[in-house]
Amino acid sequence: MKIIEVKDQIEGGKVAFDLFKEKLQEGAQTIGLATGSSPLEFYKQIREMNSATDYEYLQDELIDRFGEYPDVVAYLLEIGLVKAYLDQVFVRLVERKQQKVTVKFEPIAKQLFLTQDYFKALSMTQLKAQIAEEKGLIEVIFDIRNKKDFEILEALKQFGQTLLEIKQEKEED
């Protein structure tokens, strides 16, 4: 085992990201990083992402620091952006099982969004879906048969972004 000492969390995050990037470029499929009690700055920034502006800033920051980064890192950033959108529209859970992705909303979503709001957001995606209510919670169930991961992620991003725009319009009124 190789141990690398760093002066603080920021330097640790940078070193970890460099190692992460290097291993991905070498073709690694699985990477484990022992971080001790200090979170990696890279993951923290992705977790704290709240908007497309934050996403673009983080992309620029990564390119400035490390140059072009692998597709796996770009995919991780996309997941962070989708999570940011869905968190802001009160999504409790996103679950993928077999040929479906289920998006479950918090109870407060019923007070904010009308059925037509969900349909408007769904119209921005390329996936078939249905809306249901389970135990008082709204669920949107996407049919992902024959869809690639990037298509599913893009649909979730469009769905979340559109719902967020609807939410912001309602808050302005």
Describe the protein's architecture and organization.
Helices cover 54% and strands 16% of the residues. With 173 residues, it is of the alpha+beta class. It has a four-stranded antiparallel β-sheet with strand order 1-2-4-3. A hairpin with a 2-residue loop joins strand 1 and strand 2 (100-105). Helix 4 packs parallel to helix 7. The longest helix has 24 residues, at 149-172. 21% of the residues are buried.
Brief write-up:
The chain is α+β, with helices and mostly antiparallel strands and 173 residues long. Helices cover 54% and strands 16% of the residues.
Sequence stretches where pLDDT stays below 50 over 5 or more residues: none
Q: How large, in whole angstroms, is the Cα Rg?
A: 19 Å
Total helix count? 7
Could you tell me how far the N terminus lies from the C terminus, measured between alpha carbons in angstroms?
A: 58 Å
User: Sheet bearing the most strands, described?
Assistant: 4 strands, antiparallel
- Tell me, briefly, the overall form: elongated
Q: SSE layout and pairings?
A:
Layout: H1 9-25, H2 41-47, H3 52-66, H4 71-88, E1 91-97, E2 100-105, H5 108-112, H6 115-122, E3 128-134, E4 137-143, H7 149-172
Antiparallel strand pairs: 1-2, 2-4, 3-4
Helix pairs in contact: 3-4, 4-7, 6-7
